[in-house]
Amino acid sequence: MLEAWKAGYCRVDDIEKLFSRAIKVVLRTEAESKAFSLAFQRWKQQTISGKAGESLENGSIVACKSKFDTKIEASSAQMYFHYYGQLLHQQNMLQDFVRTGTYYAAVMENRADFEGKVVVDVGAGSGILSLFAAQAGAKHVYAVEASEMVEHAQRLISGNPSFGQRITIIKGKVEEVELPEKADILISEPMGTLLVNERMLESYVIARDRFLAPDGKMFPTTGRIHMAPFSDEYLYVEMANKSLFWQQHNFFGVDLTPLHGSAFDGYFSQSPWWMHLIQDC
Question: Which residue intervals define the domain Probable histone-arginine methyltransferase CARM1-like N-terminal PH in the entry (predicted)?
Answer without folding.
Answer: 16-45
